[in-house]
Amino acid sequence: MKINRGKQQLPRKTVIYGGPGIGKSTIASQCPDAIFLPTEDGLGQIDCHSFDIAASYDDVMTNIGQLYTEEHTYKAVVIDSADWLERLIWESICQQQSVESIEQASGSYGKGYVLACNLFSAVLTGLDALRQTKGMHIIIIAHAKTESHKDPENPDYDRWVPKLHKHVSALLLEWADEMLFAHLKVLTTTEDGGFGRKTTKALDGGKRVLRTVARPTAVAKNRLNLPDEIDFNWAAYAQHFTPKTVAPSAKKES
Fold this sequence. Notes:
The protein is an alpha/beta fold. The protein is 29% helix and 26% strand.
């Protein structure tokens, strides 16, 4: 029998999601030797290596196949973004079935979304192959949206989630090693409002952080026992899974 023992140091499967312009793609570009597989136009100001913008689902699968079959030195692949990839999948299904919207696909009743989730799963299978065979980190960027969450023990509330159909969002959450929520932490100050009243005001700027643990306000997860929040850069994340180099001890002088 083949028995594996101890921690397995594998490349990470990371999802980073958040609002527009917060810096999701910039963080991904900080991962060493990364190549972007863009599904939208948003890399113009980022110094990175990338394929041409994918115009179809087939383009995405072709690019993944090229990374799998051809020799290269890339150590990470970035899908930017998942929600635009989902749109390409919907377009592919609609073209194949000659329907105008994903709601009409496969006879409606939500079957088009199930088919789309299966195609998205095929992308993840291809990315898993790159991770296992090529030793590549997998990074998936997604935008964020708010949705109402039904809590069986408390009143319903809104929370941040990836901007994806619920089937794909659940699939991505289960697949990922880490799902990190890129968030602007608002800093506040309390001032005297007169007549014994206190008022709270938001300060300009704020601090960008990556949330690593699920909260009522946002979906998140990690498998590295990370702090609840980490600094907004790749190095702050990578230090928790990258083996640290130990300097050789100095030789004693005789």
